[in-house]
Design brief:
Distance between the termini of chain A: 121 Å
Strand content of chain A: 15-25%
Largest interface: A-B, 42 and 49 residues
Shape of chain A: elongated
Order of helices and strands of chain A: HEEEEEEEEH
Structural class of chain A: alpha+beta
Strand order of the largest sheet of chain B: 1-2
Oligomer: heterodimer
Number of strands of chain B: 2
Helix content of chain B: over 70%
Largest sheet of chain B: 2 strands, antiparallel
Number of strands of chain A: 8
Chain lengths: 184, 215
């Protein structure tokens, strides 16, 4: 026993040091935390309304080349992400047959809140105890105006632009006929 | 088959723009020689038909969608160069007005659909029309959809090989040819049947309405 003691002391000391610097959880444990908050939702659909479902996408912050987020759209053609800062964001969506989109938009930083263990969102401290529950009127009016703009855009895209396109084709060919040879 | 902006690397679209510009100029000269004031209105009508056809998307199972093109009609009636120029114009208008198909991908779309699709249709029809005109027309229309689909699939599939970041991340389009070829060929093989039927119908109609419309 006397001979073993000098060897055992450093081993014990090393174990103690490692124990002091270790996390209070097993090394392979994966944490999870369920949060609820304001995220940016990008919805993607073809002209006929069918969603770009389960297609690959990349989101870039500004002009960055490394994606901030990558993944696949959900079954409804949606991308949900939480920007970490405000500014311009670029979204690229690819389907394997070459359909897709590449566009930019501005978004502010999203905020996520931790849900209480029982699944109830913590109360908003800024709101008083007598604040009546009900729909957010600002949000509703914004949504209504967005729908109106979308309907107007749909009408223009569906009817006015195709007519304009046909008109341009006839106009250009009419112009070309002025320089074409005359039939004898 | 309208590839949007941001999917094709400049390594590909810049040389294609140079090739297309030369071919557009050459085609315009050819058209001035072969078309006249009687045939140009018919070409305008069929170009407008192609424009409308390309906007009517047919949804397919699996979420994808396809559309007819009318390129075979243009090529068989007016020749390859007229088809190439008319389709290029249609693609340009669609890109500018609707954002359907990109400006950077315009030469690839135009060369694949207008020139190669038109040339495939024209040569197939010329080769087989003595055997059976209707069958030749149908096959020409089917191939005018399928052959450009092969080219577009290969062009897209090349993107990860020619334009990737040092860590291997694709910069423009992520799928290789093993993914793009079946993704494009299967829907377009089905679409080609519809295109063939439509081409035969409209060709007969144009033939009856206007004898001697061909340049």
């Amino acid at each position: 026993m006397r001979k073993r003691l000098p060897t055992a002391i450093p081993v014990l000391a090393l174990t103690l040091v490692l124990f002091m610097f270790s996390l209070p959880v097993p090394a392979h444990h994966v944490h999870h935390e369920v949060t609820r908050g304001e995220a940016v939702v990008v919805s993607l659909a073809y002209g006929n309304g069918s969603p770009l479902a389960f297609d690959r996408y990349d989101i870039f912050a500004g002009d960055g080349e490394t994606p901030y987020q990558s993944g696949k759209t959900d079954g409804e053609g949606r991308i949900v992400f939480l920007p970490d800062h405000g500014g311009v964001w670029r979204v690229k969506v690819f389907s394997a047959d070459g359909h897709g989109a590449d566009f930019t938009f501005e978004a502010g930083p999203a905020a996520a809140k931790v849900i209480e263990p029982d699944g109830v969102e913590p109360p908003d401290e800024a709101a008083g105890p007598d604040t009546p529950a009900g729909p957010d009127k600002t949000a509703v009016s914004t949504l209504t105006s967005e729908v109106a703009v979308a309907e107007k855009k749909n009408f223009i895209e569906r009817y006015a632009l195709p007519v304009a396109g046909v008109g341009i084709i006839f106009g250009l060919f009419g112009l070309f006929s002025m320089f074409a040879r005359r039939r004898r | 088959m309208h590839i949007p902006d941001g999917f094709i690397s400049p390594k590909m679209y810049l040389p294609l723009y140079a090739v297309s510009a030369g071919l557009w100029a050459w085609g315009l000269r050819r058209m001035r020689r072969t078309l006249d004031e009687k045939t140009i209105p018919w070409l305008a009508v069929l170009a407008a038909l192609s424009f409308i056809l390309m906007m009517v998307t047919v949804p397919l199972p699996g979420g994808s969608s396809v559309h007819a093109t009318g390129i075979c009609l243009l090529a068989v009636i007016f020749g390859v160069w007229a088809a190439f120029l008319a389709v290029s114009l249609v693609l340009l208008i669609q890109a500018l007005l609707f954002g359907t198909g990109g400006i950077t991908s315009l030469p690839l779309n135009a060369l694949a659909m207008g020139l190669v699709g038109g040339a495939t249709a024209w040569s197939t029809f010329r080769l087989l029309r003595r055997w059976n005109e209707t069958a030749a027309l149908a096959l020409a229309a089917w191939l005018s959809v399928l052959v450009p689909a092969v080219l577009v699939a290969l062009a897209l599939g090349l993107q990860p090989l020619i334009a990737s970041a040092p860590d291997g991340t694709p910069l423009f389009f992520p799928y290789g040819p093993r993914v793009t070829l079946p993704a494009l060929l299967i829907p377009h093989a089905i679409l080609g049947v519809g295109e063939a039927l439509l081409t035969v119908l409209v060709y007969r109609m144009v033939d009856r309405l206007k004898q001697g419309v061909r340049p």
